[in-house]
Design brief:
43% of the residues lie in helices and 17% in strands. It has 2 domains: 200 residues, Ribosomal Protein S5, domain 2 (2-Layer Sandwich); 129 residues, 2-Layer Sandwich (Alpha-Beta Plaits), CATH 3.30.70. By secondary structure, it is α+β, with helices and mostly antiparallel strands. The N terminus is likely disordered.
């Protein structure tokens, strides 16, 4: 979306930053509970921020902030697709979080304002970390605008704080870590390490280690990550034995997949399937989400959720299996892509 002409300064320059959706390959949703996970970002979709100096600080809404509708069904369909909230509140919270961080660390920001506009092609509410992508792109743009540098592990913490602390949205660190590093990342959120240094162990790696990966999705299936995390957070806090056991199993699966990749073994489909099966044992899976998993597995591919639900990820062996996967997904009105993994 172009910036309003009346905010343009003749001698200013445009800053443009991007962030990409995240897909969790293994381990989720243990990342919010001192677990382990492997995730990556991919370029098939993106969140983009444009930032330019201006007289007053201004946030330009994108099309997802629509407040005028042709009918009640138009409004209802937009709510189903994007939820009740757009990106403006995320950007407001990002600005506040960055200012608070700089104040706490005696970092003086230049006395200048900006106009920020954003857009996103990331399908909403499908567990692809579209919200944190907007925040990540905004943070990167503001850091460039003010000429400040924040270490990547700390930046991931700040991006999480935007949603979790400022907006009270249930979430974990893995989305932000993957989006900040911009490569596939093995993440260990062991409590001892987190308490000692304030962040986990993050090891980025070459996507060439990964096998053939697909991603399938269908709109209007996910409830939003806050639903998944709020339920698990409550059960985790209450010491629910099934949840605690599931987290340990997800951690073990992550380590086993990590070992296989480092040995050049790309046969990881059984671990991906097991990840979902454990999740099914402790979480309620909607009929529509279960249909996605079943359609993928019927083609011979492995399948689990990329995040909170609405999109699945897995491995396939060859093009014949991929074509069968596409056919099965088309039968349930789902789309399939080969993610272009960032590196």
């Amino acid at each position: 979306m172009p910036l309003p002409q009346n905010t343009y300064f003749p001698f200013s320059f445009m800053i443009e930053t991007t962030a990409y959706p995240r897909a969790a390959l293994i381990g989720n949703p243990s990342d919010g509970y001192f677990g382990k996970t492997i995730a990556f970002t991919f370029k098939n979709f993106e969140a983009r921020v444009q930032l330019e100096e201006s007289k007053a600080l201004q946030i330009v809404p994108c099309e997802r902030e629509n407040l005028q509708f042709s009918s009640v069904s138009h409004l209802t369909n937009e709510v189903k697709q994007y939820g009740y909230y757009g990106g403006v509140r995320l950007i407001k919270a990002a600005i506040k979080t960055l200012v608070d961080y700089c104040s706490e660390h005696n970092i003086k920001l230049a006395d200048k304002n900006f106009t920020l506009s954003y857009s996103s092609s990331i399908p909403g509410r499908l567990g692809l970390a579209g919200s944190s992508a907007i925040v990540t792109a905004a943070m990167k743009g503001m850091m460039e605008f003010y000429g400040i540098d924040i270490p990547r592990p700390i930046l991931a913490n700040l991006i999480l704080a935007v949603e979790k602390k400022e907006l009270n949205i249930g979430a974990g660190l893995q989305d932000r870590v993957a989006q900040v590093y911009g490569r596939p990342v093995y993440m260990n959120f062991d409590k001892t390490g987190m308490d000692a240094q304030g962040y986990g162990e993050y090891i980025s790696f070459d996507p060439a280690l990964l096998p053939n990966i697909y991603l399938a999705y269908r709109n209007n299936l996910a409830e939003g990550s806050e639903m998944t995390h709020n339920d698990l957070a409550k059960r985790f806090a209450n010491g629910d034995a099934a949840v605690l056991d599931a987290i340990e199993k997800w951690k073990a699966l992550t380590d086993e997949l990590w070992r296989r990749l480092n040995k050049g073994n790309k046969n990881i489909g059984d671990l991906i399937d097991r990840n979902f099966d454990i999740r099914k044992s402790v979480c309620v899976i909607s009929e529509g989400n279960m249909e996605l998993i079943s359609a993928a597995r019927a083609s011979g591919a492995s399948a689990k959720f990329t995040g909170s639900g609405g999109a699945t990820i897995g491995t396939y062996t060859d093009e014949a299996m991929y074509e069968k996967l596409v056919k099965n997904m088309m039968a349930i009105n789902a789309s399939v892509i080969k993610p272009i993994i960032t590196e």
